[in-house]
Amino acid sequence: MVNEQNVEDYLAVPIPEEFHKKNYLILDSHTHGSYSYPDLLVAKTLSHYGKDWHQSHEDLHQEGMFMPTLRQFVDFLNLLKSGKAFDGKGNKVSSNELETILKEITEPRDTLRVEWLDANFVNVDQVLHINYAQQIVNRELQPQRSELLWGCLLVENRLSHISLNDYLERQFELLFSLQL
Question: CA 97, CA 84: separation in Å to the nearest integer?
């Protein structure tokens, strides 16, 4: 678990007055193959409504924040499913609240909701790549990492759907040849 001092050290940016640590969950650091990340604070709710992916990236960057990568998001969903999480102040969050957050993300609704993630997919010479770790360089959003995706993803009718539970339980490698 992260103590409050460690959270402050990690952020390394001034915390705006409207930033309330109780509105964030601590996602402990993880290592997945060659990819790792430090302890993170992940917002319990969506923000930046009505903005596209690029504008949301830019706004988050200006706020000293960032979108989670696909791997971080998978770990966040697993954290929610575990029913055991702490807010940014180090207080245990009820399993009911975690379940509510998970349902808000995963359950179908009549109104469109979007979870922007730090991932975009591009076709390079007929090979699909995932770009992530976006940074603003010379006022342009540029990925710092790009990886090949598994070829079977592109086979038509190979998967009629993806089971969220299967996806989370099998640790993401079902879909990607890399370990994000």
Answer: 10
pLDDT digit string (tens) for 27-42? 999 998 888 999 999 9
| The model's pTM | 0.76
Cα(176)–Cα(102) distance, integer angstroms: 23
Q: How far apart are CA 52 and CA 108, in angstroms?
A: 21
Q: For 152-176, how does the pLDDT look when each residue is reduced to its tens digit (9 = 90+)?
A: 444 444 445 556 676 666 655 544 5
Task: Tell me if 165 is assigned to some domain.
Answer: yes
Cβ atoms of 27 and 72 closer than 8 Å:
yes
49, with CB counted inside 10 A (0-12, 13-18, 19+), is: exposed
Structural domain includes residue 29: yes
Edge-to-edge order in the sheet of strand 120-124: 120-124, 127-137, 140-148
Helix (H, G, I), strand (E, B) or coil at 122: strand
Compute the residue count for the chain.
180
Backbone angles phi, psi at 92, to 5 degrees: -65, 135
Which structural domain, as residue segments, surrounds residue 157? 120-169
